[in-house]
Amino acid sequence: MNKEYTRSRYFFLILILGSLTALGPFSIDMYLPGFPAIAKDLHTDVERVGLSLSSYFIGISAGQLLYGPLLDRFGRKKPLYAGLVLYILATWACMLSGSVENLIAVRFIQAIGSCAAAVTAMAMVRDLFPVSENAKVFALLMLVVAASPMIAPTVGGYVTNAFGWHAVFGVLLLLGAVILVAVFFFLPESYPPDPSYSLKPGPILASFRTVIKEPQFYTYAFTGAIAFSGLFAYVSGSPKVFMDIYRVSEKAYGWIFAGLSVGLIGASQVNTLLLRWFRSQQIVLAALAGQVVTGAVFVVAAAAGWLQLESTLVLLFLFLCCLGLVNPNTAALTLAPFTRNAGSASALMGALQMGVGALASVGVSVWKAHSLIPMAAIMAVSAALALGTLLAGRRKITQEVDGGSGTAVLH
């Protein structure tokens, strides 16, 4: 970390950046236990309610491309303020939704607001901390983010059970307001406005082209996005798998979701220790191999009808452990080569992650099979494609900046 940061200041920065990054996951996870109640109240089915989750992913993907240039032009905080205000207003509209079509539409707008928080947090990590600290900081952010699947669905299950699904969005509205206040009073501006940065389409596209032409960027951005889409398949499919197929209650689903997230959170913290002995590139390769094996076992066992609730939980836990190692390292490696274009690079990385994730989410939602196969198959395919992307892309990198050490590695 920068020498001027005290330990308490460092912790506080991580807490605020982590809260910004966690806003999106909270918005995704907290209403999942309410899917059956939403479907009943809005006179539709769970699969159609799942499209409100897909629209959220699409909104985040599109919105991040919008905020990247704004962060580089106006600094980090002004675009962040605008996004948080939009999030609060859209969340209020979600709370008042009277049809599934309306919910799908306003969830898209809510996502555009929330993605300002995620993009800004990623860019500010690159602003505030040296490259050699980036992978460790991303792992700490993952600690905060991974806590959201432990807290959000559990709280969402109890709130839905006691007050109805509309109240879940009231809680999210309050959370957005608290984060806005914390950002205004306690988060420093980390990047001065750059009047020379043009917001015309031509220069913006040129900036994005500069970023995406970097072999290290597209290799690890696509690898991380495809691997992470397995999580989107799990999130989209889990309400049906657990509450419909395995017939667990809303409260039990929340606790199951929370328990599985321990794999993600634990692995991300083990990653910090592994970085003492291994480079980020080595960890990503090993974790993806484990993810491929787990995904293959999962889809074969699901197709054969061998899985019960307990064995399903074990396989999902192992898959999420692998993902907890992949994500912080691919993020650090993706952003490591950039300084001036960090905002655009962060936006492109996030857009790819959410765009690919949205495809996985839609795939699970429209695949109307009363079994585990849609979720398991998409998770398995995501792992295999991610490993293939990594192996193919690394051949084109001649000199690689290690996100964990900040050093260049020759190929």
Automatic annotation (TrEMBL):
Spans through the membrane: 49-68, 80-98, 104-125, 137-159, 165-187, 217-235, 255-278, 285-307, 313-335, 347-367, 373-392
GO cellular component terms listed in the entry, alphabetical order: plasma membrane
Entry-linked InterPro entries: Efflux_drug-R_Bcr/CmlA, MFS, MFS_dom, MFS_trans_sf
UniProt cross-references to CDD domains, sorted A to Z: MFS_MdfA_MDR_like (cd17320)
Membrane topology recorded in Swiss-Prot or TrEMBL: Multi-pass membrane protein
Protein's name according to its UniProt entry: Bcr/CflA family drug resistance efflux transporter
Listed NCBIfam families: efflux_Bcr_CflA (TIGR00710)
Family recorded in the similarity comment: Belongs to the major facilitator superfamily. Bcr/CmlA family.
Keyword Phosphoprotein: no
Species in which this protein is naturally found: Filimonas zeae
